[in-house]
Amino acid sequence: MLLKGNLSCLSVTLFFVLAVSSDVKSQLVKQSFTEAALSEDFSTDNDLWLTASNTDNFFVIQNGEYILRRKNFLTGYTLFPKWENQLSEYSITTVIKLHGNSGDDASAGIIFMAQADNRGALMIEFNKFRQFRIRQLAGVSYKLLTGDNKNSGWVPSSFILPGDVYNKIEIKTSEKNYDIFLNNNLLASFTELAYKSGRAGIILGPATHADMDYFYVNIPEKKISIRQKTESNQENISGSETDASETITLTAGNYYYMLSQLEELRKTNEILLAKIDSLYNTDTTAVIAGDSLSVENVIKIQKAEIMRLYAENDSLRSAIAANPEANKDELINSLTKALKKEKQLSESLTKENKDLKDAIERFK
User: Fold this and answer.
1) pLDDT of the residue at 203
2) How far is CA 229 from CA 92, 140, 256, in A?
3) Measured at the alpha carbon of residue 95, what is the angle toward residues 211 and 204, in degrees to the nearest 5?
C-alpha cells in the first residue's frame, strides 16, 4: 500500500494534449517497441500475479481475466508481478474494466517506474466518473501531475469510455520521456529525470471492482534478444534429448524473469535439503538391518547425484550473473541448462525426501 503525506516538489515538465485525437508531433517518445518482454493474457495462472481471498482483497485469474476486487473501503492497493527487470525503455499496454458497482472512491490504473525503496513511482488512474489523474510518489507523499488538491488531481476526459467496458491504457517511455495514451488517444506527455528504471504493476483505489484482460510489456530490439533453434547434437541432460525443433526465445525482459525463476528454485531446493538433513538425523535404531542397509545405499547414491547437480547449478548461476551480455549462444545454452538442471535437482530432492519419510515410517 502506498503512503500518503505532504506534497513535495520535483522537477517535472508536463504537456497535456487537449485535441480530440492524438497528435504524433506532440509525442516525446520516438522509440519503437517491437519486441515482447512480457506477454500476460491471463489464460492460465502462472504464479506471476498475486491471487488472494481475504477480508481486504479478492484477486483471482479466471476465464482469461484477472479479477480484481479491493474490498477495503478506506485504502487502495498495488500489485506487482513476480517479474524482476532493469528495463529503462519500454511500453506497457493493458485494458482495464472498472465496474459501475465500485465505490465512489474507486479507481484503477497502472503504476510504473516504481523504485525498489518504495519512495518513487509514477501512476495513471481513471475512475467511474470518466476522470483520470497522473500522480508521482515522492518519498512518502504524492505530487499531483494533473488537477489540483481540491479535486485530488482528477480531471475529466471524453477519452474514457462509459459503462462496464474495457478502457485501454498505453504507456511509452524512453530517455526519461513519457507518453500516456488512453484508448489510443494521446493523453499526456512529460519528462521526469528522477528514474532510470523501475517496476510496473496495477494500482487499485478503495472499494474497486475491476477486471484486466491482458498486460503486455514491449521493448526495443536488444542485442541480448535471440531466437535460436537448438541443434540435434546439443548436450543431453540426464539422458533426455532436447527436441531439435524446439525454439527458444530470450529477451531482455524474460532473461531477468528466468533468473528470478532460478533464484526461486534455488530457495525451494535449499528448504528441501534442510528437510532431508533433518530426516537423516532421525533415530532409526529399531530398523531391520537388511532394510536399513538397502535404503541407506539408495539414499547415498541419490545424495551424491543431488550434490553434483547442486554444485553444477551454482557454477552455472555464477557464470550467468557475472556476464549477462556474453556470447549469445553461450548465454542461451547456460540459461536453458541451468533451468533444466535446477528443476531436475528439485525433482530429485522431492523424491529423496519422500523416500526418507517412507523408510522412517516402515522402521517405526
Assistant:
1) 97
2) 29, 49, 21
3) 50
Q: Is the pLDDT reported for residue 104 higher than 90? A: yes
**More confident call, 110 vs 322:** 110
pLDDT at 200 over 50: yes
Reference 271, options 339, 337, 353; nearest CA is 353
Cα(299)–Cα(316) distance, integer angstroms = 25
Closest CA to 70 of 41, 102, 40, 112: 102
Q: How many C-beta atoms surround the C-beta of residue 154 within 10 A? A: 20
Output the nine-digit C-alpha cell for 58: 479478492
Grid cell, residue 259, equals 533468473
Q: What is the CA radius of gyration of the chain?
A: 25
CA–CA distance, 53 with 69 (Å, rounded to integer): 9
CB neighbourhood size of 25 (10 A):
5
Supply the pLDDT for residue 273: 73
pLDDT band at residue 168, thresholds of 50, 70 and 90? very high
Residues 268, 146: Cα–Cα separation, whole Å? 45
Cut 0.85: pTM above it: no
Per-residue pLDDT tens for 32-82? 999 888 999 999 998 899 999 999 999 999 999 999 999 999 999 999 998
CATH of 12-219, one of 2.60.120.560, 3.90.1150.10, 1.20.1260.10, 3.30.70.360: 2.60.120.560
For CA atoms 324, 329, 330, 332, give the dihedral sign. Answer: positive
Asked if 290 contacts 354 with a C-beta cutoff of 8 angstroms, the reply is: no
pLDDT at 46: 87
Return the pLDDT at 174: 94
| Residues in CB range of 286: below 8 A, 6 or more apart | 363, 364
**Residue with cell string 507518453:** 179
Helical residues (DSSP H) of 224-327, grouped into ranges: 252-280, 289-322
Single out the residue of 192, 42, 208 nearest to residue 122, CA to CA.
Answer: 192
Residue-range domain boundaries for the chain = 12-219, 226-363
Under 8 Å between Cβ of 145 and 136: yes
